[in-house]
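Q: Could you fold this chain for me?
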Amino acid sequence: MNNLERMFAEKPQPADFARSYLDHIAALLARIDEKEIAAFIGALTDARERGARIFFIGNGGSAATASHFANDVGIGCRAWTRPFRATSLTDNVPVMTAIANDYGYEHIFTLQLKTIMSPGDVVVAISASGNSPNVVNAVEWANENGATTVALTGFDGGKVRTAAKIAVHVPTLKGEYGPVEDVHMILDHLVGAFLMHLCRAEVGVNA
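A: Sure. Below is the predicted structure, expressed as structure tokens.
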């Protein structure tokens, strides 16, 4: 029984469940290692300095998070003269379905990376379980071809947490997809806010 199942069993009323859920999210946030977040931010700022590209990948809810990250990092920072060159590989449905149909779903990210990734780029893999074959394959290929890989994970982290060079982990019991994805979105807004203010500070210094 994971925490969500336990909470509903113990407190099936909406308000009580809501309070338990919110308390659980607060407890998870308190367990995040801020040094892992700093390493993630460092990979993004380093990519910007070098003009490298940043690719976000994920499935399901994590695909939506990948798109949101690409928006907040690439556009939200408003760093037009020295941008974060961020892209989500979950956004082109024709490309993903063509690859899935012709080569298999496990290759939908790897084959995209093969066409557009260069050594030194950053690949950010978002996965609650850390075991989605298409995400694992992409991280392993990116590692072998000179990328900096970052994993945002939950549960026990799975294969992706081990494979990635940098990992930000949300420690939960298996099956707690909602809480993991909630925290990943908070990380999106945390990282995006930091980078936006960093870029604003640069403009202020240079003005």
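A (continued): The first strand starts at residue 53 and ends at 58.
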